[in-house]
């Protein structure tokens, strides 16, 4: 009897611990959802930066985290279904680069944490209550930055030195845009440039907006960030070329799609920084308690093909300042 009791007591931990320790081990493997509007090939630099950010924090892919990638391949209408698909996989957190993916993820869940990577206006879009106190299940990195509108106008003026009249295309439906317009007006006044404010609330307003620019004799254009503009990016690019207007945009995707210039936060830097949010959330911090960051690193990207298309020669000093040049 004593021998049987001794054997039972010795085997008891072996019977109980494996299941418990296995459960603990399973919890250590974080499942991260990555929801993107574009394709896998178009995301490679950002994904590499995000994964490097995780590695810098001690994460090892396949050991303590896995990433479930979902790409809309440029079709925004696919995002809602892809977001729901990530929920079925029971991801611990969703990383959403761009306003569209954030919006789709938000509609899918109000409980699973969502990390924005480059949301243009998280407050104006209703993603967070404020940058300092997000207040819900969304936090991350915004592309808003002080004086950004003025810097864009300054760079466009340097690229087109002869310009004296610029148009600024914006959507007044978004409250934040009026602040950006005022910042642009201040910069225009300091550079001796006359600024024409042109509004577009819907896709049907774009053609009349560009007609108004031509009538107003604008010879350059600044396009402010907006979800509606992003959805009709191709149309805006076509109208800019047709009007032969050198244009400065707010997101890299415009230049990659054939636009002339963009001055914007570094998307790779934002992706790398997003890893810190994921880390804090996986360790128990609530998104509501993590302030939204504003960017600190910016990139100037110039598309020489677009310049040639409208007969524009970019000055060498401006090209020398570019972080990327598309030839």
Q: Could you give a quick summary of the protein structure above?
A:
The protein contains 13 helices and twelve strands. The protein is α/β, with parallel strands linked by helices and 327 residues long. The strands form two sheets. Strands 7-6-8-9-10-11-12 form a seven-stranded mixed beta sheet, with helices on both faces. The protein has a five-stranded parallel beta sheet with strand order 2-1-3-4-5, sandwiched between helices.
Name the features:
single chain, 327 residues, 7-stranded mixed β-sheet, 13 helices, elongated
Describe the 3D structure.
This protein is an alpha/beta fold and 327 residues long. It has helices at 2-27, 40-56, 79-88, 99-108, 148-159, 175-190, 206-215, 227-231, 233-242, 252-256, 267-282, 304-309, 316-321; strands at 30-36, 65-71, 93-96, 114-119, 138-142, 165-170, 194-199, 221-223, 247-249, 261-265, 298-303, 324-326. The strands form two sheets. Strands 7-6-8-9-10-11-12 form a seven-stranded mixed β-sheet, with helices on both faces. It has a five-stranded parallel β-sheet with strand order 2-1-3-4-5, sandwiched between helices. α3 (79-88) packs across α4. The longest helix has 26 residues, at 2-27. The radius of gyration is 24 Å and the shape is elongated.
